[in-house]
Amino acid sequence: MTDTLTPVLTDNWDADRAWTLASYEERGGYAALDKAFAMTPDDVITAVKDSGLRGRGGAGFPTGMKWGFIPQDNPRPKYLVVNADESEPGTCKDIPLMMASPHTLVEGVVVSSYAIRANTAFIYVRGEVLHVVRRLQRAVQEAYLAGHLGKNIHGSGYDLDLVVHAGAGAYICGEETALLEGLEGRRGQPRLRPPFPAVAGLYASPTVINNVESIASVPSIITNGAAWFAGMGTEKSNGFGIFSLSGHVTNPGQYEAPLGITLRQLLELAGGVREGHELKFWTPGGSSTPLLTPEHLDVPLDFESVGAAGSMLGTRALQIFDETTCVVRAVLRWTEFYKHESCGKCTPCREGTWWLAQTLARLERGQGDEGDLDLLLDQCDNILGRAFCALGDGATSPISSSIQYFRDEYLAHLTHGGCPFDPAASTAFAPAGASA
Predict the structure, then answer these.
(1) How far apart are CA 285 and CA 425, in angstroms?
(2) Which residues are CB-contacts of 68 (< 8 A; sequence separation ≥ 6)?
(3) Of the chain's two ends, which shows fewer C-beta atoms within 10 Å, N or C?
(4) Is residue 52 part of a domain?
(5) Does the pLDDT value for residue 427 go beyond 50?
(6) pTM of the predicted model, to two decimals?
(7) In contact, 119 and 161? CB cutoff 8 Å
(8) Are 98 and 66 in contact (CB under 8 A)?
(9) What are the φ and ψ backbone dihedral angles of 233, each rounded to 5 degrees?
(10) Which domain holds residue 389?
(11) Same domain, yes or no, for 216 and 134?
């Protein structure tokens, strides 16, 4: 079963002081720069397009295609912005990547910036993770001192400055245009589009915004070739990705594998659900993706298959919940998070998340009646597709999916006048399905 793992981004995590330049270069680090500089920028973009790399931040948009949108006839400067504002509940892949091997990201930034002809790049990091900010800053300093950043990199004639920017710690700044607002010193709120960032992004200039894992994947594509990367994964979801298993699993952690692996396979690698328990529900891509159940254990974890199952691959944040979990309480906690993190710019999200939390809290206390479930779904319908950005849509996902799969558990709260769930003894609400 271990053959299903493909350690590429995580390959050097066990090395001695893997985060240092010396350790990274010892394993061939920064060799991709010379190979990229021997290509034209357009050839680098073509290689990334041919590899089939899709955005690893959740949306899954083709990375090379996004780079190709930059209008090279625009006289304004071009910018690359790396979205390292990892804030999605359950998502925990970018922070360990930046901690274990920050130079993988720095090298990816140089190659990617060269491809889009940017001479300034930014890494926007969530402000609370100060240890990550410091590690990135030191890696950038090492790269400057070694000639991997700055003027005339590797004698290529290409110049690049890289800035590590610490944000204020708002979930909304994971939305790319709100991130740009924060980077420019304003309150993090989504921008009206069009214009899109590729045309008028940072400082009204053409800008590419990519996730940490997307950019960190680029050096391996340049080093090993587009066909190598495209040879992994599935037909439409190429390559590998870091799958983050957390929750009620024996060995939580990061598992790097080709897209298309199943949760059943990952659970086998992780030692299964904790001893004496069985899977009740799980999220394939963080809390803003619709819940799935044990009947979906064998769904290939790629963009198309997870979408066909009624959810989204998202950031591959696999949160595992066993039969001791009250789904109503779990969904309420997520909804309270979205209510708190709403930027308040648009009415559907600002008011909608507040009302969702109120209605869910009433149901969790066993108050109200069955009609409140229809009220919840109606509230979700009034938010979905009407909010200014994806935060509102994400807030509805766990609610509508939990009602779909666990309606009886919601009704049981009403019947018992509160949460009837006894974690020590009850498995009454665990859906029928194979034990993990």
Answers:
(1) 30
(2) 45, 49
(3) N
(4) yes
(5) no
(6) 0.93
(7) yes
(8) no
(9) 85, -150
(10) 327-416
(11) yes
